[in-house]
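Long-time lurker. I teach an intro course on protein structure, and each term I like to show students one example going from raw sequence to a predicted 3D structure in token notation. This year I'd like something fresh instead of my usual example. Would anyone be willing to generate the tokens for the chain below so I can use it in lecture? Attribution to the forum is fine with me.
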Amino acid sequence: MRIAVIDNGGGNVASVRFALERLGVRPVLTTDAGTIEGAERVILPGVGAAADAMQRLAASGLDRLIPTLRQPVLGICLGMQLLFEASEEGATDCLGILKGVARRIPDGPGRPVPHMGWNRLEPTRASALLAGIEPGAYAYFVHSFALPIGADTLASSDYGGPFTAVAARGNFHGVQWHPERSAAAGARLLANFLSLDT
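-- Reply from a regular --
Happy to contribute to a lecture. Here you go:
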């Protein structure tokens, strides 16, 4: 299976690659449009700031390419946020594939931002992407911005209020958490993504 991992400067790219290799696939790390278009699966990882990430995508023309892709696409962490319309972080316009705006998580006593650590996943509707992942399963998060619950939400989590933990629209999927760092639940989600119908 040809898997393209978009090299968008995120520090989690290597761990995503290793997680996929543990599942028996060897992804290609790339910004080449032809390689991405020809892949059977595309993964958009990301950490850092939305504005910087969108600038890197625009510089390689991938901001125009990604919304046209027809194969299954998975955005991870910031990569998921980039699939949505915008982010309050730097008032950044994103790819506009899914509906919603990423907003800063409110901090509070005992609830520092960024939200960093293990938190529970609560599915909101059935999905092949979440097959075999039990309600309440733990996933590993590192983020300061999040999407509210919306029409594209497949699972939520809670940190000072509910937010979208997994989302999908058509062939585009996103997870706010890091499956490559989330033990059994993360491995299962990646395996599910690899086996999605095209």
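Some talking points for your students: The CA atoms of residues 29 and 120 lie 30 Å apart. The mean pLDDT is 95.
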